[in-house]
Amino acid sequence: MSTTTMEPQGPRPSRITPARIGVYAFLVVSAAFFLLPLYVMVITSIKPMAEIRLGNLFSFPLAPTIEPWIKAWTYACTGVNCEGIKVGFLNSFRILVPSVIVSIALGATIGYALSFWRPKGANFLFAVLLLGAFIPYQVFLYPLVRMLSTVGLYNSLPGIVVVHTIFGLPLMTLLFRNFYAGIPIDLFKAARVDGGGFWAIFFRLMLPLSTPIIIVAVILQVTGIWNDFLFGLIFAGRENFPMTVELNNVVNTTTGEREYNVNMAATILTALVPLVVYFVSGRWFVRGIAAGAVKG
Amino acid sequence: MKPRFFRSIAAQIALLPAWLIVIFAYLGTIAWTIRISFTSTKVFPTYDFVGWKQYERLFATDRWIISGQNLFIFGACFIIGCLIFGFLLAVFIDQKIRAESVFRTIFLYPYAMSFIVTGLVWQWTLNPTLGVQQTVRNWGWQDFTFDWLVRGDRAIYVIAIAGIWQASGLVMAILLAGLRGVDQELWKAAKVDGIPTWRVYLHIIVPMLSPMFVTATVLLATAVVKVYDLVIALTGGGPGISTEVPAKFVIDYLFNRQNVGLATAASTVMFVTVLVVLAPWLYSQYFRGQRGRGA
Amino acid sequence: MATVSIRDLEIDFGTLRVLQTLNLDIAEGEFIVLLGPSGCGKSTLLNAVAGLLDVTAGQIWIGGKNVTWEEPKDRGIGMVFQSYALYPRMTVKGNLSFGLKMAKTPSEEIEKRVAKAAKILQIEPLLNRRPSELSGGQRQRVAIGRALVRDVEVFLFDEPLSNLDAKLRTELRVEIKRLHHELGSTMIYVTHDQIEALTLADRIAVMNGGVIQQLASPKEIYRRPVNRFVAGFVGSPGMNFVDGTLSLGAGAPGFVLSDGTRLDISGYEFSGNAKDEQPATIGIRPEQVDLKEKGEDATILPISLNLVEPMGADSLVWGHVSGTQFAVRIDGDDHVTTPVTVDAFFSPSQASIFDKTSGARL
Amino acid sequence: MATVSIRDLEIDFGTLRVLQTLNLDIAEGEFIVLLGPSGCGKSTLLNAVAGLLDVTAGQIWIGGKNVTWEEPKDRGIGMVFQSYALYPRMTVKGNLSFGLKMAKTPSEEIEKRVAKAAKILQIEPLLNRRPSELSGGQRQRVAIGRALVRDVEVFLFDEPLSNLDAKLRTELRVEIKRLHHELGSTMIYVTHDQIEALTLADRIAVMNGGVIQQLASPKEIYRRPVNRFVAGFVGSPGMNFVDGTLSLGAGAPGFVLSDGTRLDISGYEFSGNAKDEQPATIGIRPEQVDLKEKGEDATILPISLNLVEPMGADSLVWGHVSGTQFAVRIDGDDHVTTPVTVDAFFSPSQASIFDKTSGARL
Amino acid sequence: AEKAEVIHWWTSGGEAAAVQQFAAAFNAAGGEWVDAAVAGGGGDAARTAGINRIVGGNPPTAMQFNTGKQFDELVTQGLLSPLDDVADAEGWKQHINPLVLAAVTRDGKIYAAPVNIHSNIWLWYSPAALEKAGAKAPTNWDEFFAAGDKLKAAGIVPVAQSGDAWTQVLTFNNVLIGAGGKDLYYKIYKDLDVDAVKSPEFKKVADIFAKLRDYTDSGMQGRQWNQATAMIVTGQAGFNFMGDWAKGEVIAAGKTPGTDVGCIPGLGNQEFWIGGDVFVFPVNKDPEATKAQKLLEKVLLSPEAQVAFNNKKGSIPVRDDVDLSKVDACAAQGIALAKAGNVVESTDILISPDVSGSFTDAIASFFSDKSKTSDDFVASIASIVEGAK
Ligand SMILES: Nc1ncnc2c1ncn2[C@@H]1O[C@H](COP(=O)(O)OP(=O)(O)OP(=O)(O)O)[C@@H](O)[C@H]1O
Ligand SMILES: Nc1ncnc2c1ncn2[C@@H]1O[C@H](COP(=O)(O)OP(=O)(O)OP(=O)(O)O)[C@@H](O)[C@H]1O
Ligand SMILES: [Mg+2]
Ligand SMILES: [Mg+2]
Where does the ABC transporter domain start and stop, copy by copy (chains C, D) (predicted)? Predict the structure, then answer.
């Protein structure tokens, strides 16, 4: 050690503090907790059954195989149908695309009308919609079944689209309303002075501005609708069962031994779309959550 | 006077679908549900009037009481767990760390997954003969026990853990947004005042973030009331009926047990509870002191 | 160019009455500034003229036509907003032509008008840019251009400069003035910045609490404010107010301060109904006080000074008159050593005297 | 009260050098203002003094002690921020005492100090309120109080007034000045508002691009700016600059404008190294020009005027000198009819002449 | 071909093989079988889907119920077609077991096609496991527990039990009939007699049921019935309470019921439980679909399909005019019991789904919570019986 006391000058000598190490330790441990299930899923899905029977859930596969994935996708059975969950995958898409489009289109229009035009009863409408976002679905299920069947939409593709639209509307409206609330009202007034009507202002002025929130809405709706189980089960009809319902069927259909690897593969396949959406657009996802959750 | 209504006639037309949905899908169904809850309906609606009978039976049913208790236990653990864990994550992520976005991504990805998926994965991971317990035993600790999933008195906590796993990232995201909104000068002021960082968080930041905490709590609370998929996939209500929840009660009686009257009474109770808790918050968030923007 | 006439206008928001029986007549080609503190109803009045909100009672006439229930686009008005409210995703050209397209104007006519407006405003090279690629001043011109292409007769401005920094504000003020000279249109301009009001207006309407307090030329407003509110609101640093009582009995009229000092106010022109012994407030602007020379009709004002604020060209000297804070503006070159008590001078003819309770000019 | 001394300070953010070998010595009890445009490094310098960021090179001494590596709390400094950074959910009392509690000061000592600070700042009645229940001025006092209770010797202010409206700003400026008189502490005050700088400072350090351009008294800065940047930055409306060439050959020294006009600059004191035929810029402040009377050593300045902006006490008259825009400040009572071309007058001894390329004062 | 969309919940290996027999027979008869299997919850999910579709006006061609009251309200609402024309033509009334026939008849009309007779109250055991532990097949409950202890000592799971609530109910009914007897069973489920619940006989049943809990393993939760059955097929466990459909799993595993896996109907009091599955045919407007329904009704109860189906399924045919020679040893035991009149009707026939659900809750919550005493159990059953009156 040098005997001269160092004169403070220039940059402080940097040091790695215990606090810093603690921060990273905490984060890494937490990350492990969050990744654990994903790890288990992936690892198990590529193990042959023989290894799974050994019971070591976390061990690395000795003889990795993609057979479970193929089976899950193409010929896992639900009852006597052994077509895998690819059917559900297609169904989920057929439900997803129109539901996302319709609910967003409607949410955007309503959000726009509520923020800028404030017609009579707008507050009431908004209040009910908001409340609707928080009410347990169970309240609606049975009457909706009856209502949809009265108009002949029960157990059909349009039916499930309507249901997703109904239950997606509060969040979409809120999202767009909050977004439009952040757009200066002056912009709207200027367009009014320029002679723009309801639709002209919406299509020419507001929609081009709405790209960011539309992205957010698409992300939220895609993950939300894809992940839905209850509505798919009750309203979609057998022909249109979405992937989550198929997954549940596959997992609960057992012939003798439970094929954990196939089930895990099916689970990953089911979670794939939302996960991809999420990983590709994580930043927007965070923003979307914030926008949807907090007053704009 | 002519103007307001006619001027916004296009707006009214645009809102027509919303009105239809609100009137039929929301208000109509709620009214219908409440009405049915006062009848003796089994599978098909009968419009008699039996007073509070369904409600009396409801609160005399063990399973409903247990469902309520479970909801409370689950709700408390889930909300408090998410808030604490989510807050810690947000605080640690806010420490100017490397690879921040990687960590953020990891903490939030479960929120993108379906409860069905979450439930299945945790069911397998925590299954005593298959998952963590067995693994640790295979490592040599033969006495290691973690069998909460199959213990009636503990299973509900497992559901809470799975829920926390899924939703604390959400809390993190909300609080992180709040933390990032904290005036940097406040940190400097605290540093000049010589206040240790953890105390700044505890005494200054947490109180400042209270609106975010409230928002997060409301979101979590509504998830609690709706919780269904998670229970279905994780325990199916078992062992026994130890992890039953109200939402599952309603669905079961609605569709399997063919007692719609009782089911609607249960959902009415849920609805009223949510309304009572939520209405003040909604009002203060969205309608109080609202300044018109004119049109 | 058109007259604008507002008759008995009332506007309520719910239970809140924002404008009360307001009357205002604006001549052709006149530049009127609405000046007042935040929340006094300036924007509300402007929006009512534009047709952007519904009036509760009263009428609005533009160019001799009752337009109370007309759509904004049919009123012959153009509006320039504080934020300029340019359509962000359209080019400058798109911004200018949007209104015309809405009115289904033929496209060559649109081309022609846009070209003309662009020429007047000197924004030809910018036509293909987006608003985000423009400077503050260029944005303002585009915003004005949007009204210009529509050949409007009345321009409405809602605090168009308040978002800008001081330097740009000065420049654009000059620009607007020039444009008014050039176009000769009627202009109604809202601001809460008194410098803007004083420099731009033909007449200023000072508003407070939804009521027009005074409608007069800038000079008149500055020199002879009709009440204490107007006097205090216009001028920076503000007018000094000292309480006291009138003494109109024997001899020259006087104003007795609370510490007993009697100021001779011989040159002051009372507007009427001033009574002897009436409690009143005298208002003197900082630059109306002279520490050195005694002007012709000057009156002595004893003042104790305790702080000098040099501001470059001038300095402000702060002190007290009869216990009330009082500022005096002196030349930046002049020197005062504080603290000191001196006899200063002011000319009563330039001062204002207000009733103590009602605040009305006496 | 303590001296502050900054020696060869350098600060980098990554590859960006924000401060370059900066030296500054501040005497005990002095009020120093750091003035400069946004982004010039004022806050960076202040934060370095406070210890809120690490220096790249150089030293900082406070009260004769090298504190380059000390923690902020140990430097004997208090800091007041633009947003005040009051702890939002604590009462005023909590805000004042929190730092002391953290330092484990005995509670009666805390009481005593809080009471004393509250007295000095006249905020005793506010002690139990929350920051959100305070006015802007009251908040500022609490922020100052937070430093006061800790008995600091150096106060650092980072644009404490820039969030406020004009009226309040004027009041609080006076308040800060008063406090400085009362406490006698050393104060370093950052602003980009030149009025604040001129009114408050004992000395002003005008900064640009991380370098101190001029460190001098307000008067000196206003009257004899060392370069064109300082001249242009201080004063509002800004100094008029007209390009031309020096003519120092035969006869009285002159300044030849681009249109050939030759201005007699006999009274001007060159600071040295001015060369004949040198391209230069002459700077004249608007109030240094007189349209009517010819002062003692005045020089004729031909000017064409085209717009009058009345601003109450004064009016600005805009025009051109040799094709360059030029503003003249006249008394509000004076009258000018525009457009007109007149001979105005200015005194060369008050003007400034800069090198055209380097901008340095000649 | 007439398309017939059939909702059912036969998704396990043995079940799927069985239902395939119906599909084949129907296709052979000129129809087109559209399979709509919905897994989960012992038929809960499938019934939910089916009822919703019927209520929603988009009914399937046919849908499965358990023999009993599950479809009562569909009948009351007039949503089901009566099958009397086909029944008369096919001689159902002569050849179908009268108890079963009664269970599908409402107001004199037949509303469902019963396809099998299932007996729920079987005790299956693994001779290999018992032998290894040195135990022998029990004839009463004391012997059962003695064997259980030996199995435990040998490190073999005594009772392979599933965690699903309905399998625990099934175990309970086994105990109730086996240890309590037919009378007690009827007193409770049919007469809803509270005194019977509070009787010492029922207390004994409750004690036995309580004791059973100690003979299950910790893997019970999350295990499905067929996995439990597989445990005795492979000798991992000694006993398994399950319905006769367990045989399907046994057969699917290539073993022979009766020899490789032992079967005991109603341990203690030998009884044959009559339950099973039926198909209902919702009213619909489409004549094509009605035609398909008629064809399907006929095919389902045709003697050939009956034999083929029931052999795979493990149940016994509802008709007595079919060739019973090929039935396995266990089924033969059952048929013999039925002939002797030692039969009980299933709970689905006796009580409504609502009440049955309450029983399920009480039984499952007792069975999976060892801290609950048999007195608690008696009390909870008593309150259900009280409330169901
Ligand atoms: N849509 C509205 N709903 C309810 N109150 C309103 C609405 N618009 C304005 N107000 C109220 O009317 C009053 C006048 O508002 P206005 O916007 O005209 O003020 P202003 O003079 O333009 O103020 P500023 O200078 O801040 O723009 C204010 O008290 C305001 O709160
Ligand atoms: N943490 C940082 N990282 C990188 N660059 C920074 C950081 N802080 C400041 N800078 C840069 O350093 C320069 C000086 O910043 P500083 O905040 O000192 O300016 P300032 O003079 O206080 O300006 P203002 O008047 O806007 O407050 C700016 O260019 C700024 O972009
Ligand atoms: Mg306004
Ligand atoms: Mg700064």
Answer: 4-234
Q: Which of A255, D142, C68 is nearest to E233 (CA)?
A: A255
Query: Is there a domain that residue C360 lies in?
Result: no
Residue A142's closest chain B neighbor by CA? B254
Q: How far apart are CA C265 and CA C280, in angstroms?
A: 13
For residue A109, what are its two tokens? 């229009």
The answer to whether the CB of D86 is under 6 A from ligand 2 is no
Write down which residue in C232, C247, C278 finishes a domain: C232
Pick out chain A residues at pLDDT < 50. 1-4, 294-296
Domain membership of residue C347 as a residue range: 238-355
Shortest Cα distance from D316 to chain B (angstroms)? 39
Q: How many domains would you assign to chain B? A: 1
Query: Stretch C30-40: mean pLDDT, rounded?
Result: 91
Name the E strands within chain C.
4-13, 16-26, 31-35, 57-62, 65-66, 77-80, 154-158, 186-191, 203-208, 211-216, 240-247, 254-257, 262-264, 279-284, 289-290, 299-310, 314-321, 324-331, 340-346, 352-355
Residue pLDDT, tens place only, E132-158 = 888 888 888 989 999 999 998 988 899
Range(s) of the domain holding residue B275: 65-240+271-294
The CATH architecture one would assign to domain A86-293 is Orthogonal Bundle (1.10)
Q: Please give the radius of gyration of chain D, using alpha carbons only, rounded to the nearest integer.
A: 24
Residue C310 belongs to a domain: yes
Does D277 reside within a domain? yes
- Specify the pLDDT at position A135: 80
Longest dimension (CA), chain D: 79
Residues C189 and C256 in one domain: no
- Residue D240 phi/psi, 5-degree rounding, is -85, 135
D267/D209 same-domain check: no
What sign for the dihedral angle of Cα D316, D319, D321, D325?
A: positive
Residues C228 and C256 placed together within one structural domain of the fold: no
| pLDDT score of B291 | 46
Element holding B184 (H helix, E strand): helix B184-192
Q: Which residues pair with C78 in a beta bridge?
A: C155
Is the pLDDT at C165 greater than 50? The verdict is yes
Least Cα separation, residue A67 to chain C (angstroms): 52
Q: Is residue C362 part of a domain?
A: no
Angstrom distance (rounded) from CA B161 to CA B168 = 10
D33 beta partners: D189, D204
Contacts of A80 (CB under 8 A, 6+ apart): E10, E16, E19, E20, E23, E35, E37
What are the tens digits of pLDDT across the range E174-188? 999 988 888 899 998
Q: Choose, out of A120, A186, A211, the residue to mutate when testing the contact with C (most C CBs < 10 Å).
A: A186
What is the C-alpha to C-alpha distance for residues A216 and C251, in angstroms, rounded to an integer?
Answer: 81
Burial class (CB in 10 A: 0-12, 13-18, 19+), B15: buried
Does B192 fall in a domain?
Answer: yes
Is the pLDDT at B2 greater than 70? The verdict is no
**What per-residue confidence (pLDDT) applies to D298?**
83
CB of D15 within 6 A of ligand 2: the answer is: no
Region B112-118: mean pLDDT is 81
Cβ within 8 Å, pair A195-C99 = yes
Q: Does residue C252 sit in the same domain as residue C228?
A: no
Ligand 1 atom 14, closest CA: C41
Q: Which CATH number is C284's domain given?
A: 2.40.50.140
Q: Do E67 and E104 meet the contact criterion of CB atoms below 8 Å apart?
A: yes
Query: Which SS3 state, helix, strand or coil, does residue C158 take?
Result: strand
pTM of the predicted model as reported, rounded to 2 decimal places: 0.83
Minimum CA distance residue for ligand 1 atom 8:
B292
- Could you give the number of structural domains in chain C? 2
Q: Domain ends where: D176, D202, D232?
A: D232
| Domain residue extents for chain A | 18-65, 86-293
- Cβ atoms of C161 and C193 within 8 Å: the answer is yes
